[in-house]
Amino acid sequence: MSTREALETGxxxxxxxxxxxxxxxxxxxxLAQFLVVLDASIVNIALPAIGEHLRMDTVALAWVITAYVLxxxxxxLLGGRLADRYGHRRVFLLGILGFVGASxxxxxxxxxxxxxxxxxxxxxxxxxxxxxxxALVTQLFPGAADRTKALxxxxxxxxxxxxxxxxxxxxxxxxxxxxxxxxxxxxxxVLVIVLVPxxxxxxxxxxxxxxDYPGATTITGALFSSVxxxxxxxxxxxxHPVTIGLAVVALLFAVAFVLIERRVADPLVPLxxxxxxxxxxxNLTMLLVGGAMVxxxxxxxxxxxxxxxxxxxxxxxxxxPLAGALVIVAGLAxxxxxxxxxxxxxxxxxxxxxxxxxxxxxxxxxxxxxxxILGPSILIGVGLGGAFVTATQLAVDGxxxxxxxxxxxxxxxxxxxxxxxxxxxLASVATARTxxxxxxxxxxxxxxxxxxxxxxxxxxxxxxxxxxxxxxxRTGR
Length: 477
Description:
Blueprint lengths: L2 H7 L12 H17 L8 H8 L3 H29 L1 H20 L4 H29 L3 H33 L3 H4 L1 H15 L13 H24 L4 H21 L15 H31 L4 H6 L2 H21 L1 H19 L8 H27 L8 H36 L4 H27 L7
Helix pairs in contact: 2-6, 2-7, 2-9, 3-4, 4-5, 4-6, 4-10, 4-17, 5-6, 5-9, 6-7, 6-17, 7-14, 7-16, 10-11, 10-17, 12-16, 12-17, 12-18, 14-15, 14-16, 15-16, 15-18, 17-18
């Protein structure tokens, strides 16, 4: 059976369509993906209110983010393989059920341990549903043209979710309190739980291979340790013993994982999958785009509130032009790919993204939104919209149906690890730059602005490196 035939038949090589209403099914699955991406950013603006209500200091508040990212990034590959093994719809529904329950628990939290535990459960549940959902999308649309359109929508959801998190976080916190950023997940999640069984057919017999438990343990340990080390960099610095220790543990786990995968009969991640140049190039590009995006939204939100003195609601509303440009371009991206090719669309999008970030880096400490921020925001939205769509499509290009969950886990892992890496490194660079200027007697607002400018320039650098990685893909029109 050819790669294309295997991909079109799905993980169980079935010929029966997964849905008779596949575009509606895609919309419902995209809602779940939107919640997953949204929850990584919507909490940011609500953190001060959470800290005041639950009496959490700055270090503890950072763990509200980390408690979600650690299990999410650490369990994604395992989640993808579980979906391949036990059925994509089954694992997806298990994940969304856990996500809704954890969101309710977070909203009702009356102590910091309860909130952190709920966030960890949210992250673990997201690691199950995200790769399973992407695998279902690839099965719903076996044809090349329709799949391009579907993945265009999927990539747009990933970008819009991150941008919308800042907007919705400000609106909900200002209007209803910090609990609303968690409770908003419940009605949407329940809708997904009700509709998916009606729109997507039952899973057929799962893969006959045994799950690689040693590989699952070591890769999960490596991802947990690496994300933990990156989070420690942001909170403790590069030279702190905790940071160094976690980095060493991550390296040891990674070496053990590679050795195991080379020897077991049914590996968790067949290393031969990286012979697919498009998959490798797409994941590397997504890693770098994820790093640029997370660093951008973090720095832009703080810059607007700490330097320009916008309140939470205003800071959120200013993200609308960026999000709007992203949505429009993501909708147009499939047509552009059909005209000029996937590689050209991806590299062009990354070049536009880098240009917008460099432009944003020139914003002064007394910036006027219309004069200094609106233009680069639109340009950044255009670049992100094209980059997310095409990088996602590239990362699942040519993957056989039995490895669809694995491909979904890989591309989501790349985005999460890239986000943690980009934020840790660029936030440390910004802090060092701001500290040095303050020591020289520079005014606080100017020192902060300079630090954020370095974040934007660093994010532009990541986008350009991603453009180089995309050039190594093998894809035409």
